[in-house]
Amino acid sequence: MSFGCVYFQVVLTLVQNFRFMANDGASKFVAMVPTHMSDDVMNGKLENFGLIRILSYTLSGSEKSRGIIVIKAEIVSSSIGYEIGADDKKESKAGHPEAGSKPPITLQPKPEKNGSSYVMSAARVVQEQFGNAAPTARMGISRRVYPLVTLNPYQGNWTIKVRVTDKGPLRTFRNARGEGNLFNVELTDEDGTQIQATMFKDAAEKFYPKLELGKVYYISKGSLRVANKQYSTVKNDYEMTLNVNSEVEEALDEKKKIPEFCYNVVKIDGLGPHVNGRELIDVIGVVQSVSGILSIRRKLSNEEVPKREIVIADESKKTVTVTLWGDLATNQGEKLSSVVDESPVVLIKKVRVSDFQGVSLSSNPASIMQINPDIPEAHKLRAWFSEEGKDAHMVSAGASLPGGGVRTGSRSIFADRKFLSDVILPTVGDGKPEYFNVKGYVSYIKPDQAMYYLACQSCNKKVTEDSVSSKFWCEACQKTYEECSRRYIMTVKFSDFRGEAWISAFNEQAEALLGMSADKLSELRSQDVESKVYSRELEKVTWVPYVLRISVLQTEYMNEKRQRITIRSLSSVNWEHESKYLLEQIASMKKEA
After folding, report:
1. Which one, of 229, 332, 351, 339, lies nearest residue 283 by Cα?
2. Terminal CA-to-CA distance of the chain, rounded, Å?
3. CA 124 to centroid of chain Cα atoms
């Protein structure tokens, strides 16, 4: 049993699962109303002798009593009061149709008030309802439109109805097979499912001017393949390629059904599982600060790229730094800088999450930023900030990531557990950072080290103090400030029963370790000549057990390789969980023995 875009008349049997008899005028079969249409039956939108269009279905039953379970359908017409094909059978028995020909689809005559009657086909009903529609709208009626979620590389002909929700620039590529142009678009259907489509060479030249951002199209004769997650910007297992023979037609009357802007926001306190992951995420927040614009020179191309950093916060009372690159830093960043005092809300799509400063975000060429977007999440965030958030104490998201800033989901602190003797080997972290969990003790903190630096209160970058005016100059913001804050940048000696290592701790991690801000510690340090309070505060931290999430990276300084170990997060030891972990380790050792 197979059919494409065919209209069926419904004869409902009002049982618990809303079974009905589907009739296309030529044959009948038992079918079941999809769950999402149950309300349409109850409120009378779908009734006896109504017309529906079945979009997707599955077969059920045996060969002798085959039926279908409707997965997706849409209502074409309410009850028309006739049964399709009732007169066809009578005429067929009387021998009126020509031999071998199919009888036309007709409806059972309905007596009018004056006693007359008429015959109407299902096609006529559709024509009367959609006859004035645009050609592309009629094309959607005459062929089966597939939801994006049902497509796969092994499927034959298909047609999709999608909105272009993102469009990349026309770029030039060069490889062993030659050179040419290419561009990508992000397509979204009415269910909110997205897929990335790519066009190369002649197809790129043909469709780049035709596919416009925000418009809805019918697309067919494309091909699918498994998505390369490294380059894909949407959550879909497949990606689409359109060639020069693909068909793209604008759907003029189908714009309201498909969302204009799709997003899947990740809360700032939920960024931990996405750190160093390949997928891109969307984030929304209230802007706390905007830095000045800087130019960074790329090592590979020696090209200067504009850069700007913003800090955003949300209802979780966590903040995160977002680095904007290229046009976002210059154009959108400049707009943001002009309204930063109003604490605008920004929605940024397709940013990458890294472990810099525990956790941070970075834009890329595919990123999109909207300032004060008209969406429910933005209105809710604005209301929260006005009522509570503007006076709330904010904490960096990197300060309390469970298990550290790594792509682990709800990673256990026992995953990647190592001894320090395994970590300090010269081959560990060579070429790229490696991440581990270690359990041990802070055995020593040098009291005379540079524990902190003077930081800009807007961008957290280093500031210099003017000895004459006692004001502070921020090179990043290109501004002079009356005040500054102190931020930790310290090293501690960490030990376990197998070894020891010097480990760097930045502001959030050092605050969690010492239990106070760098400004407070600076006050104690200035009084320590007589009271020794500063020294005692440092001693309090030593020989307290912690579980650290650390990164290890081999660096080079003055032609000498050095290992840099950095605390990404820390937590107190839960002895109950630790005991269970040790018992599991003992059991596994017994099995190996």
Report:
1. 351
2. 60
3. 45
- CA distance linking residue 66 with residue 295, whole number of Å: 68
Query: DSSP assignment, residue 95?
Result: T
CA geometry: angle at 518 spanning 513 and 520, to 5°?
105
Token pair of 258 as six digits: 């498909």
- Residues 6 or more apart whose Cβ sits within 8 Å of residue 417: 436, 437, 438, 439, 581
Cα–Cα dist 217/140, whole Å: 10
129-185 confidence digits (pLDDT tens) = 444 544 444 444 445 788 888 888 887 788 899 988 888 888 888 877 778 888 888
What number is the average pLDDT over the span 365-388?
88
Strands 345-354 and 360-362: antiparallel
Name the 3-class secondary structure at 428: coil
Average pLDDT over residues 269-273: 82
Residue 376, phi then psi, degrees to nearest 5: -55, -40
- Please tell me the least confidently modeled range out of 22-26, 282-286, 309-313, 315-319: 22-26
Q: Give the pLDDT band of residue 323 (cuts 50, 70, 90).
A: very high
The CA angle 420-421-422, to the nearest 5 degrees, is 90
- CA distance linking residue 136 with residue 94, whole number of Å: 41
- Rounded to an integer, the average pLDDT of 359-382 is 87
- Measuring CA to CA, how many Å separate 472 from each of 83, 318, 340, 367, 452? 85, 27, 21, 34, 16
Stated pTM of the model: 0.48
Q: Is 471 exposed, middle or buried (0-12, 13-18, 19+ CB in 10 A)?
A: middle
**The pairing of beta strand 238-242 with beta strand 194-200:** parallel
